């Protein structure tokens, strides 16, 4: 029996554990570390392997949950804006229309590999599956085979086999962030040089796809006055248990049972979002999906397990029955969600899976190859029968008008003193559209830095005289590296100036009938004369008649025929562009960021010399 907490919670906890604790968490962390140590010691006393595994999994999950709650409760008060998690659904008239777009927008790219014995295949979905929460609806892709240019069909296998002498199709080991990526592996023959072009190439990928659309989606808008109240729409009910400055506790229930098709699926039917007084969506900091009653139940189960001497079928049945009884008694789904910013309005959206529509499709997808730079004269089509919008473009383009003050305000300073001979100060900022247009014509100017000792009151003392080799400033990477072994005194503060770079960006907007020379819309592509619109100075965004930005699929550069331009940029989109916006870097300024950094102290050994 699996007595762990839901795996989604464990994943959140692991992510938070890796992010470490702030100084304010130190006391709690110490207490938790002591609790963890005692739990690990108790595991050593359990001799039955199955019982030990059950106690380890359940107890470990509870400890991770406690760490996650501590981390989220101490989340610093900062405001960070994000996107509407349901924005993609709002572009389509029904959930089924979104499903159809998901299915019909899938295609497969042939990717070059550095090895002569490997060919990588990348299934490209029209929607980003790696966003927090992933695609809204339950879905699954099962790859079955690949057809080669010599008509041979290679079956899919879940792992590459070292002993299989033939051609293999298996998951890619080079891209752990995209589990759908595949690799065609050819047999390696020691001492024999193989011309990759002579090998049979993959031409189509076979498989099957399933997507489940809920009956409907309904959203409840809640404020402080709704705390303690239950809001109902037909079979859906939402109760706001608590609304604090940056967190909310919500319960959801569906009076109708889940449709049989999703009865065993891991569903996320409730999406909780928040806006502040400005009306903008706040970024989620994390969530806890176990109610206090659930946690108490799991703790009781853990105590029971720790009192056992051995695992048995009777114990397994008892735990299963207890869990089923608890779930029947507590059918409501609980969620405590934390946000980066003060909550004004809560938006709780519920996907109703009491009835569903299941869409299945057998896949036989041609494998397409697009080189980043090609000398092919013909422009290869990539016209998919779907329209997909990119809601993040609006926020991204705010970087086109970035000011000097905004640039400076976004700087974050990190230090590393683990290696005294290569201590570092790093200046970074969140990447914006402005960074994309900086180009490579930088003039950083002077980047002075002076190291000081410190008086007892924390103020600057005397500057430290240093040989030139004691430190190095890299203005283009915004780093200062210094060797503490060459310092006659321990530095306490670094004062200086680091250059930042700010582009001046000019925007032009055109409709399809007024495009200037060098820009042309053809079906779902934008063709760009790269002599008139140099790639390092320009970026392009397109809209259709709805006024929304279209999502770009990919872009390549083409050497064209003798009759046309020497070089053409080809941008492919999901949909039909009717309006084009160009963004040109017209100037590049250097902005000096003055700093005074209190230096972290390097760890020193207490051992005698």
UniProtKB/TrEMBL annotation:
Write down the superkingdom of origin.
Bacteria
Q: Any idea what this protein is called?
A: Lipoprotein
> What organism does the record attribute this protein to?
Pseudomonas rustica
